[in-house]
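Standup notes, protein team

Yesterday: finished cleaning the Paracoccus onubensis set.
Today: MFS transporter structure.
Blockers: none.

Input for MFS transporter:
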Amino acid sequence: MDYLLKDPRSWGLMLAAMLTIMSNATITPSLPGLEAIFADNPRAPLLTRLLITAPSLLVACVAPFAGAMTDRLGRKRPLLIGLVIYAVAGTAGLYLDSLEAILASRLALGLGVAAIMTAQAALVGDYFDGPARGRLMGYQMGATNVGGLVFVTLAGALAATDARLPFAIYGLAALLLPLLAVILPEPDRFSGAVEHAGGSGDSEPGWRMTVTVMTIAAGLTFVIFYAVPTQVPYHLRGIGLEDPRSAGLVMGAMMFAAAIMSVVSGLIRPRLGRIGTPVSGYLSLATGFAGLATGQSLPVAMISTALIGAGLGMCMPTFVTTALNVAPARRRGLVIGLVTASIFLGQFLSPLASQPLVTHLGYSGAFRIGAFAFVALAAALTVTLHRQAGPRSTNPIRRMPAEPGRKS
């Protein structure tokens, strides 16, 4: 067994990361029901879609600052504060009586997500090194998608009873708070030990440009990808699949495939390289979007979203791991904050980009445009990284630790 899976810190980081995917996708099966509950609100069609991506706006705005704060003040305190905010704001949809109020609570939820995501990702870089870091990022994304599979499927069942019930799932953060407080120690450099990696010698030459490319690629990926959770429930209704459990199954297939591929990506990334791994992921994403554009049944929709999940599972660990690998230790929080902000800004912008396409081209036309966009991104990323760094783009720095224990 991989020693990472015997380390309680690994499991703590995976549990914390699991909350980040819950922040948006958990209430996806509730969207049609919430729109019906608030049918007297003329803005309900747009506002219900924004409930999915509202946390992303706050994360996009504050994640760079949250990351910089973790570089100065430590990782653990922001993580625990984020868990408290997450639990309180996430469950507010159970009792708030207007879409506007629920939207405000979703914005507050974004503050908690920003703190959790930047702190836990920086801890990955602090606790582990070299290939172990890449493997843990794969395990971590796998855990988030297994959690997503469980919680979105559960949310689909709950939404069939009451569209508000899925908001209760966010209370998991309160249960995790005492556990993570115990098993995630503050890294030595924030707890009185000698400052670690104060210079830039531990970074890759040209790291700023590489981080910029990874940040932009991650953001654009999510602008397109998030058409799935925001539009697929309505697309399914349009082809006659009106049961909320159908949306839960389709989203579950995506998350299950993403979980498997995230773990596998850590094994195949050394062979495919920094360019080949996300490009392969983009081609899988394009195929899945094309399937959604042409399919008219639940099995086809599930296969298509599974391909989409597998593609995302190849892309996203690579973007984050590459950013961590090339950046100096003293900048990890800021770098992860920038990547996080880009991801969540893409999520927030997604319905604003996809809804006009749906209006003019229909759901099939919008998904078809998404397929072409991923092919274009694959080509652009290949050309950009080849020009930017040449051989370095496929050989990130790897500092092998002598022992699998905590870095000092």
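Follow-up from PR in the comments: The mean pLDDT is 81.
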